[in-house]
Amino acid sequence: TWKWVVGPMFLYLCERLVRFWRSQQKVVITKVVIHPFKTIELQMMKKGFKMEVGQYIFVKCPAVSKLEWHPFTLTSAPEEDYFSIHVRIVGDWTEGLFNACGCDKQEFQEAWKLPKIAVDGPFGTASEDVFSYETVMLVGAGIGVTPFASVLKSVWYKYCHDATNLKLKKIYFYWLCRDTHAFEWFADLLQSLEAQMQERNNAEFLSYNIYLTGWDETQATHFVVHHEEEKDVITGLKQKTLYGRPNWENEFKTIAGKHPSSRIGVFLCGPEGLADTLNKQSISNSEADPRGVHFIFNKENF
């Protein structure tokens, strides 16, 4: 028995030593951006750091806790000269990070006063395969939209650099969100992509649908009053926010009809219940004929 135990234990110890060494490497916070509703963006640099789209890292801030490591999805693109995470202030640790970065103060925070950060990673996810398909469905639920910030940024960089060699030709993006507060920072990215795609006369490259799954009576009245305006009252986008949840069967059938005889990648970052639904739809809407349409399901749960 000890022979079977020693091998795996040795590999485990080696892996822990590598992670410890990586976590000791110097990380520099280059910029802290405060977004609405207590969401902060940390832009960082680390020597030798290389990432792919949709990956995540573990972050430790000794000024807040010397033992706690927390996972965060990278929201920057590999083409950028920094890597970034978005942190929503929802607990003691994130509140401590918010204060340590000086976000609770009105005056400008000097760079040397920013806290030390330790980073372990990056670690891979299913989202890395997004460029292996010509057509993809990206589905984010709530904060599960963060890996797709990295994906959409990278798609844009690749599209601008060499659109002819980009295998990905069509993106269907779905974002399901319970309240309007979470729309703020990500809506800015979508607005930028929307404007730039229109400038290049390729607005059809990205189709997106934003679903608000929770609202009260006051909000509903406000939405109805402003529904006829050119831009959406919540996001500022030309695409209007939808209310409720998608009819996934109709969505899959529509996309299958538009892209016959193709492999369509379905990428989810969201809860297990939604993963089960999308997996069943991917199977039921894929044809038995190898030359027909096939939905390939990839998930990342939280």
TrEMBL record:
Topology in membrane:
Multi-pass membrane protein
Keyword check for Repressor:
no
According to its UniProt entry, the protein's GO biological process terms are: defense response; monoatomic ion transmembrane transport; superoxide anion generation
Q: Where is it found, in Gene Ontology cellular component terms?
A: monoatomic ion channel complex; NADPH oxidase complex
Name the principal localization, coarsely classed: membrane
Q: Which residues form the FAD-binding FR-type domain?
A: 19-129
Q: InterPro entries, from UniProt? A: Cyt_b245_heavy_chain, FAD-bd_8, FAD-bd_FR_type, Fe_red_NAD-bd_6, FNR_nucleotide-bd, RBOH/FRE, Riboflavin_synthase-like_b-brl
* Family matches, as CDD domains: NOX_Duox_like_FAD_NADP (cd06186)
Q: State the reactions this protein catalyses.
A: NADPH + 2 O2 = 2 superoxide + NADP(+) + H(+)
Localization annotation: Cell membrane
- Molecular functions per Gene Ontology: metal ion binding; superoxide-generating NAD(P)H oxidase activity
Q: Would you say which domain of life the source belongs to?
A: Eukaryota
Keywords attached to this entry: Cell membrane, Electron transport, FAD, Flavoprotein, Glycoprotein, Heme, Ion channel, Ion transport, Iron, Isopeptide bond, Membrane, Metal-binding, NADP, Oxidoreductase, Phosphoprotein, Transmembrane, Transmembrane helix, Transport, Ubl conjugation, Voltage-gated channel
Q: Which cofactor does it need?
A: FAD
Q: Tell me the Pfam families matching this sequence.
A: FAD_binding_8, NAD_binding_6
SUPFAM superfamilies reported in the protein's UniProt record: Ferredoxin reductase-like, C-terminal NADP-linked domain (SSF52343), Riboflavin synthase domain-like (SSF63380)
Residue ranges that the Swiss-Prot or TrEMBL entry lists as coiled coil: none
Keyword S-adenosyl-L-methionine tagged: no
Summary of the function given for this chain in its UniProt record: Catalytic subunit of the phagocyte NADPH oxidase complex that mediates the transfer of electrons from cytosolic NADPH to O2 to produce the superoxide anion (O2(-)). In the activated complex, electrons are first transferred from NADPH to flavin adenine dinucleotide (FAD) and subsequently transferred via two heme molecules to molecular oxygen, producing superoxide through an outer-sphere reaction.
Protein name per its UniProtKB record:
NADPH oxidase 2
Gene from which the chain derives = Cybb
